[in-house]
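Collaborator request log, item 7. Partner lab (contact: R.S.) asked for a structural prediction of YkuD domain-containing protein to inform their binding assays.
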Amino acid sequence: MVKLVDGVYHTMTAWSDISSMNRFVLSGAHLRAMKNFRKLGTGRTYGCIRQKLLDWQVVYELWRLYGRDV
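Returned to partner:
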């Protein structure tokens, strides 16, 4: 999911399990993009494990409070 908040594009993904997420994060286009992240833009990231999906406002607040610069 992608959402524009205060002029900044944010993405949110949800995975059924950590191993599926890691396979995606550590391979293919995502891995290449992360290796070139500084050329593509700037930003912060935040990840968490939850039993249910959170709404955008909650996710945005968690990102704002706990996100780390990449």
